[in-house]
Amino acid sequence: MSTSFPSYVSVDYSAGTNEDPSDYPTLEAKLEQAVAVTKTGLETYERPAVLWTGGKDSTLVLYILNEVAEEFGYDLPPAIFIDHYQHFDAVHDFIAHWADEWETELIYAQNEDVGRYVDNNTITPGDDIPIAALNEQNQHHVRTLLEYEEESFPFLLDTYVGNHLLKTVALNNALEQYDIDGIFSGVRWDEQDARAAETFFSPRHDPDIYPPHDRIQPILQFDEPAVWDAFWDVIVPESVDGYPTGHVPADSNDLPNDLSVDDIPVSPKYFDGFRSLGSEVSTERSATQPAWHQDLERTTERAGRAQDKEDLMERLRDLGYM
What we know:
alpha/beta, Rossmann fold, six-stranded mixed beta sheet, two-stranded antiparallel ribbon, 9% strand, globular
Protein backbone atom coordinates (compact mmCIF):
# COMPACT_ATOMS: atom_id res chain seq x y z
CA MET A 1 0.00 0.00 0.00
CA SER A 2 1.22 3.49 -0.83
CA THR A 3 1.74 5.48 2.35
CA SER A 4 1.70 8.90 0.72
CA PHE A 5 -0.81 10.74 -1.42
CA PRO A 6 0.31 11.36 -5.02
CA SER A 7 1.78 14.80 -5.72
CA TYR A 8 0.09 15.07 -9.12
CA VAL A 9 -3.29 15.77 -7.45
CA SER A 10 -4.06 19.47 -7.10
CA VAL A 11 -7.61 20.37 -6.12
CA ASP A 12 -9.26 23.01 -3.97
CA TYR A 13 -10.07 21.20 -0.74
CA SER A 14 -11.93 24.26 0.55
CA ALA A 15 -14.47 24.34 -2.31
CA GLY A 16 -17.93 24.22 -0.80
CA THR A 17 -16.92 25.47 2.63
CA ASN A 18 -19.81 27.20 4.49
CA GLU A 19 -22.23 26.40 1.67
CA ASP A 20 -25.53 24.54 1.77
CA PRO A 21 -28.16 23.49 -0.77
CA SER A 22 -29.72 26.97 -0.80
CA ASP A 23 -26.57 28.28 -2.50
CA TYR A 24 -27.67 26.23 -5.54
CA PRO A 25 -31.35 27.21 -5.70
CA THR A 26 -32.41 25.39 -8.88
CA LEU A 27 -32.03 21.88 -10.22
CA GLU A 28 -30.08 23.30 -13.13
CA ALA A 29 -27.60 24.99 -10.77
CA LYS A 30 -27.19 21.80 -8.76
CA LEU A 31 -26.56 19.75 -11.88
CA GLU A 32 -24.10 22.28 -13.29
CA GLN A 33 -22.05 22.13 -10.10
CA ALA A 34 -22.18 18.34 -10.10
CA VAL A 35 -20.90 18.25 -13.67
CA ALA A 36 -18.09 20.71 -12.86
CA VAL A 37 -16.91 18.70 -9.83
CA THR A 38 -17.15 15.44 -11.78
CA LYS A 39 -15.19 16.84 -14.72
CA THR A 40 -12.44 18.10 -12.40
CA GLY A 41 -12.32 14.70 -10.76
CA LEU A 42 -11.96 12.85 -14.05
CA GLU A 43 -9.27 15.28 -15.20
CA THR A 44 -7.28 15.13 -11.96
CA TYR A 45 -7.21 11.58 -10.67
CA GLU A 46 -5.41 8.79 -12.49
CA ARG A 47 -7.24 5.83 -10.93
CA PRO A 48 -10.67 7.00 -9.77
CA ALA A 49 -13.67 4.85 -8.91
CA VAL A 50 -17.26 5.53 -7.91
CA LEU A 51 -18.86 4.16 -4.76
CA TRP A 52 -22.24 2.72 -5.78
CA THR A 53 -24.74 1.35 -3.27
CA GLY A 54 -27.74 1.11 -5.58
CA GLY A 55 -29.34 3.95 -3.63
CA LYS A 56 -30.67 7.10 -5.24
CA ASP A 57 -27.70 9.34 -4.36
CA SER A 58 -24.92 7.10 -5.64
CA THR A 59 -27.00 6.22 -8.71
CA LEU A 60 -27.31 9.94 -9.44
CA VAL A 61 -23.52 10.26 -9.15
CA LEU A 62 -22.96 7.26 -11.43
CA TYR A 63 -25.34 8.69 -14.04
CA ILE A 64 -23.59 12.08 -14.01
CA LEU A 65 -20.22 10.35 -14.18
CA ASN A 66 -21.32 8.36 -17.23
CA GLU A 67 -22.60 11.48 -18.97
CA VAL A 68 -19.49 13.57 -18.27
CA ALA A 69 -17.12 10.75 -19.25
CA GLU A 70 -18.94 10.28 -22.55
CA GLU A 71 -19.21 13.98 -23.37
CA PHE A 72 -15.58 14.83 -22.65
CA GLY A 73 -13.97 11.57 -23.71
CA TYR A 74 -12.81 10.18 -20.37
CA ASP A 75 -12.68 6.50 -19.48
CA LEU A 76 -15.56 5.48 -17.25
CA PRO A 77 -14.21 4.57 -13.81
CA PRO A 78 -15.26 1.27 -12.21
CA ALA A 79 -18.00 1.17 -9.60
CA ILE A 80 -17.26 -0.27 -6.17
CA PHE A 81 -20.21 -2.02 -4.53
CA ILE A 82 -19.65 -2.84 -0.86
CA ASP A 83 -21.24 -6.21 -0.25
CA HIS A 84 -21.81 -6.27 3.49
CA TYR A 85 -23.69 -9.60 3.42
CA GLN A 86 -26.97 -8.04 4.59
CA HIS A 87 -28.34 -6.37 1.46
CA PHE A 88 -31.88 -6.74 0.23
CA ASP A 89 -31.95 -9.17 -2.70
CA ALA A 90 -33.57 -6.41 -4.75
CA VAL A 91 -30.48 -4.25 -4.30
CA HIS A 92 -28.20 -6.97 -5.68
CA ASP A 93 -30.52 -7.45 -8.66
CA PHE A 94 -30.70 -3.70 -9.32
CA ILE A 95 -26.92 -3.27 -9.21
CA ALA A 96 -26.26 -6.18 -11.57
CA HIS A 97 -28.93 -5.09 -14.06
CA TRP A 98 -27.96 -1.43 -14.31
CA ALA A 99 -24.23 -2.11 -14.31
CA ASP A 100 -24.91 -4.13 -17.45
CA GLU A 101 -27.24 -1.51 -18.95
CA TRP A 102 -24.75 1.31 -18.34
CA GLU A 103 -21.70 -0.81 -19.26
CA THR A 104 -20.12 -0.19 -15.89
CA GLU A 105 -17.29 -2.33 -14.53
CA LEU A 106 -18.43 -3.57 -11.14
CA ILE A 107 -16.05 -4.31 -8.27
CA TYR A 108 -17.51 -6.20 -5.31
CA ALA A 109 -15.79 -5.18 -2.06
CA GLN A 110 -16.20 -7.55 0.88
CA ASN A 111 -14.58 -8.14 4.24
CA GLU A 112 -13.76 -11.70 3.25
CA ASP A 113 -12.35 -12.64 6.65
CA VAL A 114 -15.66 -11.88 8.36
CA GLY A 115 -17.53 -13.50 5.49
CA ARG A 116 -15.60 -16.76 5.85
CA TYR A 117 -16.33 -16.91 9.58
CA VAL A 118 -20.03 -16.27 8.91
CA ASP A 119 -20.19 -19.02 6.28
CA ASN A 120 -18.14 -21.56 8.21
CA ASN A 121 -20.11 -21.11 11.43
CA THR A 122 -23.63 -20.61 10.02
CA ILE A 123 -23.84 -17.13 11.54
CA THR A 124 -27.05 -15.16 11.07
CA PRO A 125 -27.57 -11.42 11.64
CA GLY A 126 -27.46 -10.64 15.33
CA ASP A 127 -25.25 -13.60 16.27
CA ASP A 128 -22.00 -12.79 18.05
CA ILE A 129 -18.62 -13.09 16.32
CA PRO A 130 -15.56 -13.48 18.60
CA ILE A 131 -12.91 -10.83 18.05
CA ALA A 132 -10.22 -13.49 18.52
CA ALA A 133 -11.57 -15.36 15.48
CA LEU A 134 -10.74 -12.46 13.16
CA ASN A 135 -7.52 -11.95 11.25
CA GLU A 136 -4.78 -9.54 12.30
CA GLN A 137 -6.09 -6.66 10.18
CA ASN A 138 -9.61 -6.84 11.59
CA GLN A 139 -8.37 -7.23 15.15
CA HIS A 140 -6.19 -4.15 14.67
CA HIS A 141 -9.18 -2.13 13.50
CA VAL A 142 -11.38 -3.32 16.36
CA ARG A 143 -8.86 -2.97 19.19
CA THR A 144 -6.65 -0.08 18.05
CA LEU A 145 -8.79 2.15 15.84
CA LEU A 146 -12.23 1.52 17.33
CA GLU A 147 -10.87 0.95 20.86
CA TYR A 148 -13.52 -1.73 21.29
CA GLU A 149 -12.92 -3.85 24.39
CA GLU A 150 -15.67 -6.48 24.29
CA GLU A 151 -14.80 -10.08 23.41
CA SER A 152 -17.31 -10.28 20.55
CA PHE A 153 -19.50 -8.10 18.36
CA PRO A 154 -22.95 -8.75 16.86
CA PHE A 155 -23.08 -9.56 13.17
CA LEU A 156 -25.18 -6.49 12.35
CA LEU A 157 -24.41 -3.82 9.80
CA ASP A 158 -25.80 -0.78 11.58
CA THR A 159 -23.64 -1.02 14.69
CA TYR A 160 -20.31 0.62 15.48
CA VAL A 161 -18.08 -2.41 14.95
CA GLY A 162 -20.25 -4.11 12.36
CA ASN A 163 -20.47 -1.05 10.14
CA HIS A 164 -16.73 -0.44 10.31
CA LEU A 165 -15.68 -4.01 9.56
CA LEU A 166 -18.33 -4.83 6.97
CA LYS A 167 -18.21 -1.56 5.06
CA THR A 168 -15.19 0.61 5.83
CA VAL A 169 -12.57 -2.16 6.02
CA ALA A 170 -14.05 -3.74 2.90
CA LEU A 171 -13.82 -0.39 1.08
CA ASN A 172 -10.26 0.26 2.27
CA ASN A 173 -9.16 -3.15 1.03
CA ALA A 174 -10.62 -2.43 -2.40
CA LEU A 175 -8.97 1.00 -2.52
CA GLU A 176 -5.65 -0.65 -1.76
CA GLN A 177 -6.10 -3.57 -4.14
CA TYR A 178 -7.00 -1.33 -7.09
CA ASP A 179 -4.71 1.55 -6.05
CA ILE A 180 -7.59 4.05 -6.14
CA ASP A 181 -6.55 7.70 -5.71
CA GLY A 182 -10.01 9.32 -5.79
CA ILE A 183 -13.46 7.92 -5.15
CA PHE A 184 -16.69 9.58 -6.24
CA SER A 185 -19.23 9.49 -3.42
CA GLY A 186 -22.92 10.41 -3.17
CA VAL A 187 -23.00 12.08 0.23
CA ARG A 188 -25.08 15.26 0.68
CA TRP A 189 -24.91 18.15 3.11
CA ASP A 190 -28.51 17.76 4.22
CA GLU A 191 -28.40 14.00 4.73
CA GLN A 192 -26.74 13.83 8.15
CA ASP A 193 -25.26 16.36 10.58
CA ALA A 194 -21.79 14.81 10.36
CA ARG A 195 -21.75 15.51 6.61
CA ALA A 196 -22.88 19.14 6.74
CA ALA A 197 -19.34 20.55 6.70
CA GLU A 198 -18.06 18.38 3.86
CA THR A 199 -16.35 19.91 0.81
CA PHE A 200 -16.45 18.84 -2.82
CA PHE A 201 -12.95 17.38 -2.58
CA SER A 202 -12.23 15.84 0.79
CA PRO A 203 -8.78 14.44 1.71
CA ARG A 204 -8.32 11.05 3.35
CA HIS A 205 -4.53 10.95 3.56
CA ASP A 206 -3.65 9.31 6.90
CA PRO A 207 -2.01 5.96 6.00
CA ASP A 208 -2.55 4.64 9.53
CA ILE A 209 -6.31 4.71 8.96
CA TYR A 210 -6.93 4.15 5.22
CA PRO A 211 -5.09 3.97 1.91
CA PRO A 212 -4.44 7.66 1.11
CA HIS A 213 -7.06 8.93 -1.32
CA ASP A 214 -9.55 11.75 -1.87
CA ARG A 215 -13.33 11.69 -1.74
CA ILE A 216 -14.90 13.45 -4.74
CA GLN A 217 -18.40 14.57 -3.75
CA PRO A 218 -20.34 16.09 -6.66
CA ILE A 219 -23.86 16.13 -5.19
CA LEU A 220 -23.29 17.72 -1.78
CA GLN A 221 -25.53 20.60 -2.91
CA PHE A 222 -28.56 18.38 -3.56
CA ASP A 223 -31.29 17.93 -1.01
CA GLU A 224 -33.60 14.91 -1.03
CA PRO A 225 -36.39 16.52 -3.13
CA ALA A 226 -33.85 17.70 -5.71
CA VAL A 227 -32.46 14.18 -6.06
CA TRP A 228 -35.91 12.91 -6.98
CA ASP A 229 -36.45 15.85 -9.34
CA ALA A 230 -33.24 14.85 -11.10
CA PHE A 231 -34.51 11.32 -11.54
CA TRP A 232 -37.91 12.16 -12.99
CA ASP A 233 -36.79 15.18 -15.02
CA VAL A 234 -33.44 13.90 -16.31
CA ILE A 235 -32.16 10.43 -15.43
CA VAL A 236 -35.21 8.28 -16.13
CA PRO A 237 -36.36 10.09 -19.32
CA GLU A 238 -32.82 9.98 -20.75
CA SER A 239 -32.20 6.36 -19.75
CA VAL A 240 -35.54 4.77 -20.62
CA ASP A 241 -37.02 4.90 -24.12
CA GLY A 242 -40.53 6.25 -24.09
CA TYR A 243 -40.48 7.72 -20.59
CA PRO A 244 -41.99 11.22 -20.62
CA THR A 245 -39.95 13.96 -18.98
CA GLY A 246 -41.39 15.07 -15.66
CA HIS A 247 -43.79 12.18 -15.15
CA VAL A 248 -43.66 11.35 -11.43
CA PRO A 249 -45.32 7.97 -10.89
CA ALA A 250 -47.88 7.66 -8.14
CA ASP A 251 -46.78 4.05 -7.59
CA SER A 252 -45.41 1.06 -9.48
CA ASN A 253 -48.67 0.77 -11.44
CA ASP A 254 -48.39 4.32 -12.76
CA LEU A 255 -45.48 3.81 -15.16
CA PRO A 256 -46.22 4.87 -18.75
CA ASN A 257 -45.99 2.92 -22.00
CA ASP A 258 -46.19 -0.55 -20.43
CA LEU A 259 -42.95 0.01 -18.53
CA SER A 260 -42.29 -1.90 -15.31
CA VAL A 261 -40.22 -1.11 -12.26
CA ASP A 262 -37.44 -3.29 -13.68
CA ASP A 263 -37.17 -0.91 -16.64
CA ILE A 264 -36.51 2.12 -14.42
CA PRO A 265 -33.10 3.04 -12.89
CA VAL A 266 -34.73 3.53 -9.48
CA SER A 267 -34.44 0.80 -6.87
CA PRO A 268 -37.74 -1.03 -6.35
CA LYS A 269 -37.29 -0.53 -2.62
CA TYR A 270 -38.09 3.16 -3.12
CA PHE A 271 -41.34 2.21 -4.81
CA ASP A 272 -42.04 0.05 -1.74
CA GLY A 273 -41.77 3.01 0.65
CA PHE A 274 -38.14 2.90 1.74
CA ARG A 275 -36.30 6.24 1.76
CA SER A 276 -32.88 4.92 2.71
CA LEU A 277 -31.35 1.57 1.77
CA GLY A 278 -29.25 -0.12 4.41
CA SER A 279 -29.32 -3.55 5.95
CA GLU A 280 -32.10 -6.01 5.20
CA VAL A 281 -32.41 -6.74 8.91
CA SER A 282 -32.21 -3.21 10.33
CA THR A 283 -33.84 -0.90 7.80
CA GLU A 284 -37.60 -0.41 7.64
CA ARG A 285 -39.74 1.34 5.10
CA SER A 286 -40.81 4.83 6.08
CA ALA A 287 -44.38 4.75 4.71
CA THR A 288 -46.57 2.85 2.27
CA GLN A 289 -46.27 5.36 -0.59
CA PRO A 290 -43.13 5.66 -2.76
CA ALA A 291 -40.24 7.61 -1.28
CA TRP A 292 -40.73 10.70 -3.47
CA HIS A 293 -44.36 11.10 -2.36
CA GLN A 294 -43.58 11.07 1.35
CA ASP A 295 -43.26 14.18 3.51
CA LEU A 296 -39.66 14.95 2.63
CA GLU A 297 -39.62 18.33 4.36
CA ARG A 298 -40.89 17.35 7.79
CA THR A 299 -39.67 13.79 8.25
CA THR A 300 -36.19 12.31 8.57
CA GLU A 301 -34.75 10.51 5.57
CA ARG A 302 -32.75 8.01 7.61
CA ALA A 303 -35.37 7.35 10.27
CA GLY A 304 -35.73 3.79 9.03
CA ARG A 305 -32.09 3.03 9.88
CA ALA A 306 -30.91 1.52 13.15
CA GLN A 307 -29.69 4.40 15.28
CA ASP A 308 -26.45 3.02 16.78
CA LYS A 309 -24.54 3.77 13.60
CA GLU A 310 -26.36 7.05 12.96
CA ASP A 311 -25.50 8.37 16.42
CA LEU A 312 -21.82 7.53 15.89
CA MET A 313 -21.61 8.84 12.33
CA GLU A 314 -18.97 11.51 12.95
CA ARG A 315 -16.61 9.04 14.64
CA LEU A 316 -17.19 6.45 11.90
CA ARG A 317 -16.45 8.99 9.21
CA ASP A 318 -13.16 9.90 10.90
CA LEU A 319 -12.25 6.24 10.51
CA GLY A 320 -13.07 6.12 6.82
CA TYR A 321 -16.83 5.66 6.55
CA MET A 322 -18.61 7.54 3.76
